[in-house]
Amino acid sequence: MRKTMIESLWRGPLTEPAPPADDAALAELAAKVNRAAQARLGRSLSIRHVDAGSCNGCELELHALSNAFYDLERFGLRFVASPRHADVLTVTGPVTVNMREALLRTYEATPDPKWVVAIGGCAVDGGIFAGSNAVAGGVKDVLPVDLTIRGCPPSPRQLLAGLLALLKV
Amino acid sequence: MMPTQTNVKVDGWLEAVDRLAGGHLTLLSLWADPPDVKMALLDEASGAVSIVSYHCRNGQYPSVGVKHPPAIRLERAIRDLHKLEAIGASDTRPWLKHTAAPYEFLAAEGEALHQIAVGPVHAGIIEPGHFRFTANGEFLVRLEARLGYVHRGIEASMAGAPLDGAAKFAARASGDSTVAYGIAFALAAEMALGIAAPPRAIYLRALMAELERLANHFGDIGAICNDASFSLMHAQCGILRELTLRAADDYFGHRLMMDIAVPGGVVRDIAADGAAHLGTLLAEVRRVFPQLVELYDNTASLQDRTVTTGIVKPDYARQFGAGGFVGRASGRAVDARRLPGYAPYGDLKFEVPVLTAGDVNARVWIRIREVEQSLALVEQILAALPGGALRVDLPSRGGEGLGIVEAFRGDVFVWLRLADDGSVARCHLRDASWFQWPLLETAVEGNIVADFPLCNKSFNCSYAGHDL
């Protein structure tokens, strides 16, 4: 263990500079976010993630945000275990009929002010699953959505650029 | 290799059920192509795959699950999705279709038992599912999973779609196994059409499949240690995983290599400098990974959590035909790359590691050994990469085919029937998780509640691949 740790110290950090906040995301947010609420929260946001029907590809890339290269927490963004601790809900997947109720309850359990970020092509509008009998639609068909991050799945850099916009409005 | 197909009456169906229950055959899958129900059977001695098909009378067929428990959830899914009844079934609760009626969990009786309900929304960034624990103090008496929350109607969505459209659904059955699903669907389509992908495509598919296996095994090894609060391994394995995904992005244009393996071949070639640069990735992994293995092996506090925790009995692994590290950590020496086997693995040298302890530690070690094998496979594939075309044209005609591919967590089974115009009439996908989820329930019995995350992560079953 000592060898691995010393080597890590010598090597220096792998963590990369932040990508610029996504312009489109900034524009989308500017129209929606209550500035007073933003000022109250400052530069720290707690994120609760809900997989509402994803293939788990988006989850893999959300996980990657915590690795040494992206290090999400340096920006004051962190994933929390309960919606009751959260400012932001990230939602992936088309919302399945079977997850609709759980998603709504998670939203209701999240204290105001709160934002919903729809992540991935399926979350935006159902993606290739739009129209399936087992799917209720995109996230916006179930909850008010403040920000969308597209991609199948979006890369960690795209995710980071989108989430950083939340801090820059 | 075309499987034998037999249309059977009641007698033939029941004979197949008896052979499953007697342990002579392994159930690969059970599905409906209404009005028929079909079973795919594997003879592990010869590697032969056979399909038996039963024409339902009045929407009914004799239950397989009543004698062979691995079929129970598949029968419940058939009932939900196709309204065909398994006569004699012991469990007729819905499975993939959730209704307003309260779900009746299986009972556990005894003094001082309490229930813990978890999910579908979990604490971490994981997929949704519900776990109902019954515990006596800290000790688990029973676990029952309730799944189906990520049921998106994939099989129904594929019906009527053209092949390339249907391939996109297959590639999104379980995102972590998108390459394996892409290959399995492609093999099924190619068998149905009587064509073969060009040699270069077959090797590029295998290259992507091994990169996918490496990335997932790195992620899993780190995440299992993280669930034992050993975050150093998680951080270090996370670096290896990220390097692998970046290599995939650089040389195949997508970090997960989604939608590249398709019926007829592959849609793109590896980048011109890809073969050379993959060598750099292999060298870095070969430099770092042995240190991490040593760290895992020499950390007593970590071993204390993983050794003898969450044991899967070899009998269950055999009965359920458990694939991947779940089966191979419990003595089941089956890997779809060898049995029944598919190209190009017959031309490549690799070992299939097998252990018998069946605990979390054994499932970690299978992954470690498989990382080593996959590194060697990537080298062999790069050295032998043939030239030539990437894809053949697809004829428009009907047919049936199947594909069995070893994803990182076990065998993916795809069965496909094409209509005369070449579109998908019926496609069935079966993830390895179907036969692993029930074993998780057996593995946690008698363990403490706090070890469940560790057991669960050592299985890393797919919710999406199961729920479809």
Rg of chain A, nearest Å: 17 Å
Instruction: Give the N-to-C terminal Cα separation of chain B.
Output: 27 Å
The strand count of chain B comes to 14
Low-confidence region ranges of chain A: none
Structural class of chain A: alpha/beta
Tally of individual domains of chain B: 2
Query: Class of the largest domain in chain B in CATH?
Result: Mainly Alpha
Kindly, what is the distance between the CA atoms of the first and last residues of chain A, rounded to a whole number of angstroms?
43 Å
What kind of sheet is the major sheet of chain B?
4 strands, mixed
Quote the beta fraction of chain A. Answer: 15-25%
Characterization of this structure:
The complex is a heterodimer of chains A (169) and B (468). Chain A is built from seven helices and seven strands. Chain A has helices spanning 2-11, 23-30, 35-41, 57-64, 97-109, 121-125, 156-168; strands at residues 45-51, 77-79, 88-92, 95-96, 115-119, 135-137, 147-149. In chain A, α2 packs parallel to α7 (156-168). The longest helix of chain A has 13 residues, at 97-109. Chain B has 468 residues and is an alpha+beta fold. Chain B has two domains: 4-87, NADH:ubiquinone oxidoreductase Nqo5 subunit (Beta Polymerase, domain 2, 2-Layer Sandwich), CATH 3.30.460.80; 159-429, Cytochrome-c3 Hydrogenase, chain B (Orthogonal Bundle), CATH 1.10.645.10. Chain B has 16 helices and 14 strands. Chain B has a four-stranded mixed β-sheet with strand order 1-4-3-2. A three-stranded antiparallel β-sheet of chain B has the order 7-8-9. Chain B has a three-stranded antiparallel β-sheet with strand order 12-13-14. In chain B, α4 packs antiparallel against α5 (178-193) and α7 packs antiparallel against α8. The chains are: A alpha/beta (169), B alpha+beta (468). At the A-B interface, α1, β1, α4 and α5 of A face α3, α7 and α8 of B.
